[in-house]
Amino acid sequence: MALRLLLLLLAATPVLAQAQGIGSSASDCCLKYSQKPIPRSLVKSYTIQGPELECYLTAVVFTTKKDKQICASPTDPAVRKLMQSLDKQGKNDKEKKKAQSPRPRGRPRRQKRQRV
């Protein structure tokens, strides 16, 4: 009887560990969507989570400027608009960096006088 109980416990251990998210990235997954509107001024980036990351819920995960994460529904029109705004902002930042030429640093060198 004790042997059967021991075998049953050993067989159940991996199942319990997997259900708790031990050994997987499930602890980083969104479990529900935020119901509040997300102000553009607070957000710096976003990522999309889904089944490929072993997450049950497909969600857009916004990262705020204070490095907090907010989960949102990818089908929400306001969320899609915010994602497009961030994409456009990122594109503009890359273009600005390309357009800027490196400026000289420090004082200009002093030219020597030519003797006549």
In a few lines, what is going on in this structure?
This protein is an alpha+beta fold. It has helices at 2-19, 77-99; strands at 43-49, 59-64, 69-72. It is built from 2 helices and 3 strands.
Description:
The protein has a domain at 26-95: Beta Barrel (OB fold (Dihydrolipoamide Acetyltransferase, E2P)). A three-stranded antiparallel β-sheet has the order 1-2-3, covered by helices on one side. Helices cover 35% and strands 15% of the residues. The chain contains two helices and three strands, in the order H-E-E-E-H. The chain is an alpha+beta fold and 116 residues long.
Task: Please supply descriptive tags for the structure shown above.
elongated; 116 residues; 3 strands; alpha+beta
Q: Helix proportion of residues, in percent?
A: 25-40%
Order of helices and strands: HEEEH
- How would you sum up the global shape? elongated
- Count of DSSP H/I helices: 2
Instruction: Please identify the top-level CATH class of the domain at 26-95.
Output: Mainly Beta
In what range is the share of β-strand residues? Answer: 5-15%
* DSSP, total strands: 3
Radius of gyration from the alpha-carbon trace, in angstroms? 27 Å
Instruction: Please identify the structural class as seen in this structure.
Output: alpha+beta
Strand order of the largest sheet: 1-2-3
Write down the CATH topology of the domain at 26-95. Answer: OB fold (Dihydrolipoamide Acetyltransferase, E2P)
Low-confidence stretches: 5-10, 13-26
